[in-house]
Amino acid sequence: MASLLRAVNISKAFPGVQALADVNLHVERGEVVAVVGENGAGKSTLMKILAGVTTADSGMLEVDGRPVALRSVTEAEHLGIVLIHQELNLAGNLDIAGNIFLGREPTWGGVLGLIDHSRMHDDAAHITGRLGLLASPYAVVDTLSIGQQQLVEIARALSLQSRLLILDEPTSSLTESETALLFRVLSELTEQGISILYISHRLKEVEIIADRVVVLRDGKNAGDLVGDEIMHHAIVQRMVGRELKQFFQRHRPEAIAGVHPVVSVRGVRWAEQQKGIDFTIAPGEIVGMAGLMGSGRTELAETLFGVRRMVSGAVAIDGVTIPIRTPADAINAGIFLIPEDRRVQGLILVDTVKDNISLTQLSSLSRFGIVQGSQEDELAQAMCQQFNVRTPSTSQTVANLSGGNQQKVVLAKWLSRTPRLLIMDEPTRGIDVGAKSEIYALMDDLAEKGAAILMISSDLEEILGMSDRVLVMHDGDLAGQLRRNELSEQVIMHLATGGAAKT
Amino acid sequence: MKKVLGIFAFLCLLYLLILIATDPEAWGSNNFNLSKRIGVYGISCLGVGLLIVTGGVDLSIGSVICFCAATFCWLVLDCKLPIPLAIFAILLLGAGIGALNGVLVTYVGLQAFVVTLCGLFAYRGAARWMTNDDIPRIAPAVASWSAFCNDSFLGVSVFAWMLLGFFAMATVFLHFTIHGRYFFAIGNNERAAHYSGINVNFYKILAYVLCSLFAAIGALMEVFWISSVQASSTGNFMELYAIAGAVLGGCSLRGGDGTTTGMIIGTAILCLLRNLIQMAEIKDYLEPVVIGGALLLCAILDEMLRRGISWSDISLFLRQLFRKQTP
């Protein structure tokens, strides 16, 4: 019998990135296939192609041995393929039945289109019963737990006569017991012949649930694992394992042991259930922070910068404890943040390069509160030159610059003063190689001036290339700390995916 | 800049129409009356304009004007407060109302629309209660002040000169100081402003304070102008005229855009339109129709400018529309 789904030589490119290159994947009936890979390995793109959200540039898709073209979500759903996104797509104000049948409500009364409520709720009760979802079909979705909402999504998929469920990080916001329930439901579904494509960063879960694991790396197949081969370290080994390119410009200082740290963070928490985060950074040290999305890296940065409220803990700069309640407190203490999303938090896109650069230091550019235009121009010119911002003039609107140049404007906005601690959240995400290299050189330069740098990154190459030391986050806590000589992609991924630290 | 020039041209056109429509002998008195009205309306428009730049809005201006006017009468007539002291108290009252709005919007996290809508109801009701729905006999007490305010200088009302003063201050504040920069930054991208270390809550509250403070100044002008306060009508629709003036003048209700010059021109256009309507002997109650229509037209033109739609696009659109109707 032909496979339920076969994807052959799927390729897809986005401007500047080859997201997928000749990827192959097949799913049999009643099989759970896990797709794993680092951030940016191409998992999401592949799933979107299979679910008809986007189309591939080349390659072939077969369902039941027949070639198909999936041009829209509706077409995919027609063939029984349903994607359940990580962010649930439910109408919170509607009840369970209303969500399951949203857009396909049974009606009566011809053109009037009156909703046949009794039939809709009966059908809904039938499906939710199959999933062991105890809530009434009249329950409003907002009142349900995240786990129950997840089941409503699955119920919706089943009501579409789905034969292949694609689950994108289904457990990322579930509690342990909810996860256990989900797994029980999934194994019952597979007994009924329904297949599951399961995407997760949590390799322990993959070990439990997957019949087969497909590993992607840099948009290519990096090996399949079946049955007993499915083990944490074996998966990680296939997920990573590249050679580092030589464009990291890091002149490491000699010994930095024994020097008083610039920053010491003690017991910092932003949520009650955390254990508390402790670390120090020495002058001139670049500390990388690795971890998967949602592991709390950005939250830590926001807490240290005063954007997010600190539940408990203390931060000391040069041995002096400073209370950080607002970004202004952090800035006064010399803590600057290059935020994760430059378009939302970093820049005012509709403003000019000059306005963005001067925004953080207007008070030093003004006399009696009046902004001195000439000084502002000088500063903007000088910073653009120093950071090699490619723009026709400093009065260009920032929105018109390329990603790399926008990021350089964000750096220029802060770095006319030397920071004590510079926190960089995904400093090179989505920018070209040239700009990346410039930013690395700049970080090295700052470190040489004695600043401490905390670099948060999902790019392991960058972490390995630039860091003197690496902190790994997992589920809101530090999972481990690795010195330069202990660094490898395998060890980092091991810690980031919840593996125990080796002692 | 282009926008301001455009509406300025429109203003000149309106003024030309008024000159044509009036007897040259009445030009002087008409100018005087116009300038007085612009003076009073312009103040509240500047206030709300500053607020709109930060992305806020205030629907309670008319009611705040009424409440401040009623309180002024009470202070002068019942509490026998000397007038300068009463003026000072009213300014404090205005600032206090603004601070309350600001705190409710920032720290409590309510929507500006809701907070000031509540104010729209509450302050007018409070004013009617204070005056017992009567007309306080304020005229004799403020006679000398009224005489001064109804005076003119170089053929233009004292109010207009006062507005010029406030305009100058507002212009320096909004377009030349760091505080004005922060207003624009917050209006354009509040999060980026916050991440840049700007005390966003402080500046948002400041904007509400300025808005209500300017409304209180408007209330005092109104009292000295008309020498009477009627709680059910004083300041009626002032918030709408103020917001309309700011929008006509190029402020975006999304925040982050606007000039003080534009606000004044917008107010002047509204006042001139009103003047023209009265001259054309159009029924009084049609005035809002004309103003609404003018505002809509401006909004459409502005959107076209923003998207870069040319006349050929419009004719193409019209032709397609026409073709559909004649199969």
Highest CATH level, the class of the largest domain in chain A: Alpha Beta
- Stretches with pLDDT under 50, minimum 5 residues of chain B: none
- Predict the CATH topology of chain B: ABC transporter involved in vitamin B12 uptake, BtuC
Structural class of chain B: mainly alpha
The string of secondary-structure elements of chain B, in order, is: HHHHHHEEHHHHHHHH
- How many extended strands of chain A? 24
Q: What shape does the CA trace of chain A take?
A: globular
The oligomeric status of these chains comes to heterodimer
CATH architecture of chain B: Orthogonal Bundle
CATH architecture of the largest domain in chain A: 3-Layer(aba) Sandwich
| Strand numbers in spatial order across the main sheet of chain A | 6-9-10-3-11-12
CATH class of chain B: Mainly Alpha
Would you give an account of this structure?
The complex is a heterodimer of chains A (503) and B (327). In chain A, 46% of the residues are buried. Chain A has 17 helices and 24 strands. Chain A is globular. Chain A is α/β, with parallel strands linked by helices. Chain A folds into three domains: 5-239, P-loop containing nucleotide triphosphate hydrolases (Rossmann fold), CATH 3.40.50; 245-334 and 418-503, P-loop containing nucleotide triphosphate hydrolases (Rossmann fold, 3-Layer(aba) Sandwich); 351-416, no CATH class. In chain A, the strands form six sheets. Chain A has a six-stranded mixed beta sheet with strand order 6-9-10-3-11-12, sandwiched between helices. Chain A has a six-stranded mixed beta sheet with strand order 18-21-22-15-23-24, sandwiched between helices. With 327 residues, chain B is mainly α. Chain B has a single domain, classed as Orthogonal Bundle (ABC transporter involved in vitamin B12 uptake, BtuC), CATH 1.10.3470. Helices cover 75% and strands 1% of the residues of chain B. Chain B has 14 helices and two strands. Chain B has helices at 2-21, 27-53, 61-78, 83-106, 112-131, 143-149, 158-176, 178-188, 190-195, 200-226, 238-248, 260-279, 287-307, 311-325, and strands spanning 152-153, 156-157. A two-stranded antiparallel ribbon of chain B has the order 1-2. In chain B, helix 2 (27-53) runs parallel beside helix 7 (158-176), helix 2 runs antiparallel to helix 10 (200-226) and helix 4 runs antiparallel to helix 5. The mean pLDDT of chain B is 87. Classes of the chains: A alpha/beta (503), B mainly alpha (327). At the A-B interface, helix 10, helix 11 and strand 20 of A face helix 8 and helix 9 of B.
